[in-house]
Amino acid sequence: MSKNIDNISEKLNSLGLTLEEIKVYLAIVEGRGDTALIISQQTKLKRTTVYRILDNLIAKKIVITRAGERGLHYLTSPAESFDLILAEQESKLAHFKRLIPELKEQLGRIQKPDSNSSQVRYYHGVKGLKQVTYNSLRAKNELLTYELSTMNAFMDQEEAEKLRARFVENKVHIKTLTNVTEMSAWTDITEMVEKYWEIRHLDPNEKPFQFEILIYNDVYCMYKYTGNEVFCVEIKNAELAQMQRTLFYYLWDMAKPLKILDNHGTAKLALPARPPLPSL
Fold first, then answer.
1. Domain residue limits at 48
2. 27 and 150 co-located in one domain
3. What is the pLDDT of residue 279?
4. For residue 227, what pLDDT is reported?
5. pLDDT confidence tier of residue 24, bands split at 50, 70 and 90
6. Residue 67, in any domain of the structure
7. Which residue in 12, 18, 61, 103 is a FRET match for 169, CA 20 to 30 A apart?
8. What is the CATH number of the domain that holds 135?
9. Of 14-18, 20-24, 99-103, which range is least confident?
10. How are beta strands 182-183 and 71-76 bridged, if at all?
11. Do residues 23 and 45 touch, judged by C-beta distance below 8 A?
């Protein structure tokens, strides 16, 4: 039962309920209380806090009230009430999709031009990793990467797939250098694998790398997510980006192609053909 409750709590939290709201809501669901006093006793929350939370749950339309002889009683709404939360979130998302392009355009009109075109930005944590990955959607035509693993290492599959679809939509060709010799399937965006992705191997004994690197436009970005510290450095400088681009292609020409085995990204370093045995 505890495992099931933990699973339900995680889902409710994903829908935007706070931990305290989940405590109160589940107390009602499980029949452990239907008045503010009893719920307060069951959850060990102050009664004033319980009243505030109940008001929030009523506003979210997942709890309803019923008048009783000794005051209000609190009941859960039918499970279908969660469809309303979904509809509201979809409405917000549609609003953001309309709002953000307009906002970016308006900010661009009033933004003060940089006196120095070179910029260095530092990012920390998983949110920083995601931010620099989203920033690379600005890439025009090509994105060059030194890769330790795929985006799935620091981003859930659904979010990573949406990003890959955006790269395909923008027609960005991605070239990847890696020290690994094989890769398991990592995407269902088959068009990316078929049209927009190439990968080559560098021997880690000769040319190891411990950082992932992105090169696009006039940006050189380096980040690391293994070990104790997660950090990123993003440098905007046209000369540096061009120098790193030249170095990348120098290594690219030396690297060995991985053979792509299917349109989901499964790939393996092709072993050189054995020389024929000498005839006796």
1. 17-78
2. no
3. 56
4. 64
5. very high
6. yes
7. 103
8. 3.30.870.10
9. 99-103
10. unpaired
11. yes
Residue 185: Cβ within 10 Å count = 13
What CATH number does the domain containing 43 carry? 1.10.10.10
Please report which residue ranges of the chain form alpha helices under DSSP H. Answer: 2-14, 19-29, 36-43, 47-59, 82-110, 125-135, 157-169, 190-191, 238-254
Give the Cα separation of 31 and 17 in Å (integer). Answer: 19
Give me 170's structure tokens. Answer: 């923008």
166 and 235, same domain (yes or no): yes
* Number of domain units in the chain: 2
Q: Average pLDDT of 91-112? A: 77
Residues 123 and 243 in one domain: yes
Token readout for 273 is 């053909």
- Residue 5 contacts residue 26 (beta carbons within 8 Å): yes
Q: What is the dihedral of CA 102, 106, 107, 113, to 10 degrees?
A: 140
Q: What angle do CA 126, 142, 181 make, to 5 degrees?
A: 65
* 55-80 residue pLDDT tens: 999 988 889 888 877 778 899 888 77
Q: What is the pLDDT of residues 197-235, one digit of tens each?
A: 999 999 888 878 788 899 999 999 998 876 667 778 999
